[in-house]
Amino acid sequence: xxxxxxxxxxxxxxxxxxxxxxxxxxxxxxxxxxxxxxxxxxxxxxxxxxxxxxxxxxxxxxxxxxxxxxxxxxxxxxxxxxxxxxxxxxxxxxxxxxxxxxxxxxxxxxxxxxxxxxxxxxxxxxxxxxxxxxxxxxxxxxxxxxxxxxxxxxxxxxxxxxxxxxxxxxxxxxxxxxxxxxxxxxxxxxxxxxxxxxx
Amino acid sequence: xxxxxxxxxxxxxxxxxxxxxxxxxxxxxxxxxxxxxxxxxxxxxxxxxxxxxxxxxxxxxxxxxxxxxxxxxxxxxxxxxxxxxxxxxxxxxxxxxxxxxxxxxxxxxxxxxxxxxx
Lengths: 199, 118
Hints:
heterodimer; A: 199 residues; mainly alpha; Rna Polymerase Sigma Factor, Chain: A; Arc Repressor Mutant, subunit A; 2 domains; elongated; B: 118 residues; alpha+beta; 5 helices; 44% helix
């Protein structure tokens, strides 16, 4: 079983700005499963996927030391999103378990790799998908059980509104409202992180 | 507001924020049970049909793939206590005839062990 690269612990300590730390934690929560799925889709075996995930984070860990905020420069989360995109596409493009990543400098990561557009599209799509999943987990605690149940049965499980309304003894309107209130919060949460890969 | 009066923009905002007064809320619920127009307004306030499509696809695929990402946290000690001892240092432990290699995922609803039948 492999765990996070050890570097991630010390990294969190080095991200001093609370806003930056939040960006880093959101990044970790979202990108690990994304890299995992993309690598799996390429047909890599479990151990090789774990290896690739770790290599991406180790290369990002090395780059983080080079982060210097400047008044005119990008925000940390945009900078992180950009080097991450390139690190991930780079690792996936050379995804061969027996191939060492080599030393990757931050300049390598900041220069756009000639990745094929399909991979970049996959990365964007998977990142959006994962952001929705992450957002849903984040906001679940804000709602009471009946509201969450009505949302879950209709929006996630795809059951008809009338059927769920009958089951919980409420009106169809109450179910619509529950679903929309939760979806509104999911949207707000997704928007918090989406600038990371749009930057 | 009677049940026949459609929701205004401000009411939709208050409704989505979960801040509508209980008496008004039950009227809004009744109205939305019958008024397709207001249901559409409520949904469009959150996102267009493309957004809803992406959101629901993402959430539904998550439902089908809950345990796909493994090993991102150390195994919960409580779960390891369920396992019997194993002789092989490469395994976590045993459940009945199964040698347990690792934890596939853990969450509120249960744990998936990755097993190897010896």
